[in-house]
Amino acid sequence: QVQLVQSGGEVKKPGASVRVSCKASGYTFTTSGITWVRQAPGQGLEWMGWINPKNGNANYAQKFQGRLTMTTDTSTTTAYMELTSLTSDDTAVYFCGRTRSPDIWGQGTMVSVSS
Amino acid sequence: EIVLTQSPGTLSLSPEERATLSCRASQTVNSNYLAWYQQQPGQAPRLLIYGASNRATGIPDRFSGSGSGTDFTLTISRLEPEDFAVYYCQQYGTLPFTFGPGTKVDIK
Q1: CB contact under 8 A, B44 and A103
Q2: Closest CA to A44 of B93, B99, B53, B90
Q3: Average pLDDT over residues B67-86
Q4: Sorting pLDDT into bands at 50, 70 and 90, what band is A52?
Q5: Where on the phi/psi map is residue A37: left (φ > 0), alpha (ψ -120 to 50), or beta?
Q6: Measured between CA atoms, how close is B105 to chain A, in angstroms?
Q7: Given CA atoms A23, A28, A34, A39 in this order, what sign does their dihedral have?
Q8: Are A1 and A101 a contacting pair, CB within 8 Å?
Q9: Could you report the per-residue pLDDT of B50-72, keeping only the tens digit for each?
Q10: Cβ contacts (< 8 Å) between A92 and chain B: which residues?
Q11: Do B88 and A107 touch (CB under 8 A)?
């Protein structure tokens, strides 16, 4: 079946970086984009960016420009989201989703940033 | 960027009642690329509606979406116990794609 499986939770110190993976299966990876969304505790959904696995082109929300990088590996059908210079404000559950209006979602990855 | 405003913030209703949720955009949503999601606590969002009015696969027909331009509505014709949740709208027609703040539908 079509699914996205994300990597496990992470605990990071302020200033560190985190990389979350999103393994796709059950469909042709290059035919659909991957969206990344995060949700801070008790807060709403925040769109982070979107990447086209066919050509690697990515678009990011302005607030993450300069510290967010999205990539894909078509050989392993895996998408990656890397966020650098972490602060406590980056503590959130990070989700990947298939397409611009995600119909399939990963299970979420909790990233905690604390000294 | 397009700002989405959802109202009301909280909707308190009883099972079997009708729910009407609003999503207003600060500018026209391209090609009516407006989606609605349901999120239960501790779970990933679930796509309900895409393209303003198209039900996603497996979504019951008590969920319907309408609207165009800047004003959109999600209607749940008769609330079932599992429908009490938070609902988000998202526009995906103009980068950056954005979400609304959500409407919580809780039990009266």
Answers
A1: no
A2: B99
A3: 97
A4: very high
A5: beta
A6: 14
A7: negative
A8: no
A9: 999 999 999 999 999 999 999 99
A10: none
A11: no
